[in-house]
Amino acid sequence: MELVKGRPTNLIGRSDKEIKVYDLLEELGIEYERMDHEETNTMEECHEIDLLLNADICKNLFLCNRQKTQFYLLMMPGNKPFKTKDLSSQINSARLSFADAEYMEEYLHIKPGAVSIMGLMNDTDNQVQLLIDRQVTEGDTIGCHPCVSTASIKISIKDILEKFLPAVHHEAMIVELPEANRL
């Protein structure tokens, strides 16, 4: 696995979803580093990639309310635990659960294992509210998938907040999730 700047020179065999991410980042003048790798679907599988990227790959959770009428993409540090009660009160939603994969595909055009903030470029009707744990915004860079789980990109959090999100017509709601309890 090798870390390279910018888009791949050879696009043969790459999905349209992935190419669309690189096209948008280029159009917005956002610099990034990229790495191709075997398919990863869990945070454990992303650990080695974190080290090579020298960035934390965010845990991205696709959530919904009980009625399945409100959808959320939560970005949080990969090592933080997630408990719905810690988030529900901050976003005024009584009960949260993981949304079905069909909604993820419908709104973000992403399959489970590849979910990332980049999928918001496909949510043209703003059906998904972005939630970012404050700790993520305090770093310099993040790692995420370019809508496929066979590549990862390292990108500036400043570029995400100031260039990417305005371009895809989304705003982030900053939330604060507690650290794991220490024994």
UniProtKB/TrEMBL annotation:
<feature type="domain" description="YbaK/aminoacyl-tRNA synthetase-associated">
    <location>
        <begin position="37"/>
        <end position="161"/>
    </location>
</feature>
<protein>
    <submittedName>
        <fullName>Ala-tRNA(Pro) deacylase</fullName>
    </submittedName>
</protein>
<comment type="similarity">
    <text>Belongs to the PRORSD1 family.</text>
</comment>
<dbReference type="Pfam" id="PF04073">
    <property type="entry name" value="tRNA_edit"/>
</dbReference>
<dbReference type="InterPro" id="IPR040285">
    <property type="entry name" value="ProX/PRXD1"/>
</dbReference>
<dbReference type="InterPro" id="IPR036754">
    <property type="entry name" value="YbaK/aa-tRNA-synt-asso_dom_sf"/>
</dbReference>
<dbReference type="GO" id="GO:0002161">
    <property type="term" value="F:aminoacyl-tRNA deacylase activity"/>
</dbReference>
<dbReference type="InterPro" id="IPR007214">
    <property type="entry name" value="YbaK/aa-tRNA-synth-assoc-dom"/>
</dbReference>
